[in-house]
């Protein structure tokens, strides 16, 4: 069983409500999250669209902030790098909007997931608030933090399953490059001899 299947089972069976995906830039954190959500909810229920959402800023000089988000029927994504210091307001709004009406039955069809990119930017105090919120409204609310290092999320780490994504090895990159090269050569009608010469130059 691969990593994605194992995580998918935990989501669908509600063995673990929340996740932290940690890893450096370009290791595929967002791709893994979207693949997980598609497996869990089905591709037809995860038609992702980009929107601008207006968030009211109580107690601030600015009255509101317009935030770029990605949404589907089961999730909302936000990148903290785009929030200009208003992370607490935006995440609080998204959390409050994820609360189901009273007496609603939580099941797989109405599960909502909040995906927070660049979650390293969350302050420790606000992490404690998120932990309190998730404890109070446990059930259908799920949150996925994407960060470079899970040690920056110590206040919520105990609530989450941590998934560490490693950069691809040299062999994996080399193999992928050769496959792309082969595809390019075939598309450009290179002869077998010409392809062998190009391949030899890479070794």
TrEMBL record:
<protein>
    <submittedName>
        <fullName>Uncharacterized protein</fullName>
    </submittedName>
</protein>
<dbReference type="GO" id="GO:0006261">
    <property type="term" value="P:DNA-templated DNA replication"/>
</dbReference>
<dbReference type="GO" id="GO:0005663">
    <property type="term" value="C:DNA replication factor C complex"/>
</dbReference>
<dbReference type="GO" id="GO:0006281">
    <property type="term" value="P:DNA repair"/>
</dbReference>
<dbReference type="InterPro" id="IPR050238">
    <property type="entry name" value="DNA_Rep/Repair_Clamp_Loader"/>
</dbReference>
<dbReference type="GO" id="GO:0005634">
    <property type="term" value="C:nucleus"/>
</dbReference>
<dbReference type="InterPro" id="IPR027417">
    <property type="entry name" value="P-loop_NTPase"/>
</dbReference>
<dbReference type="GO" id="GO:0003689">
    <property type="term" value="F:DNA clamp loader activity"/>
</dbReference>
């Amino acid at each position: 069983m691969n990593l994605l299947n194992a995580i998918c089972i935990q989501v669908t069976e509600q063995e673990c409500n929340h996740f932290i995906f940690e890893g450096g830039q370009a290791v595929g954190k967002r791709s893994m999250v979207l693949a997980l959500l598609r497996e869990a909810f089905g591709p037809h229920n995860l038609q992702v669209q980009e929107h601008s959402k207006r968030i009211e800023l109580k107690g601030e000089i600015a009255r509101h902030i317009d935030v770029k988000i990605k949404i589907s029927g089961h999730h909302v994504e936000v990148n903290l790098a785009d929030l200009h210091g208003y992370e607490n307001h935006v995440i609080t709004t998204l959390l409050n909007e994820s609360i189901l009406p009273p007496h609603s039955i939580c099941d797989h069809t109405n599960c909502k997931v909040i995906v927070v990119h660049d979650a390293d930017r969350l302050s420790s105090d606000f992490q404690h608030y998120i932990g309190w919120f998730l404890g109070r409204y446990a059930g259908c609310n799920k949150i996925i933090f994407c960060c470079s290092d899970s040690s920056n999320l110590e206040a919520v780490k105990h609530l989450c399953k941590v998934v560490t994504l490693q950069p691809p090895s040299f062999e994996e990159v080399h193999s992928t490059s050769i496959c792309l090269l082969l595809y390019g050569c075939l598309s450009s009608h290179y002869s077998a001899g010409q392809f062998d010469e190009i391949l030899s130059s890479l070794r």
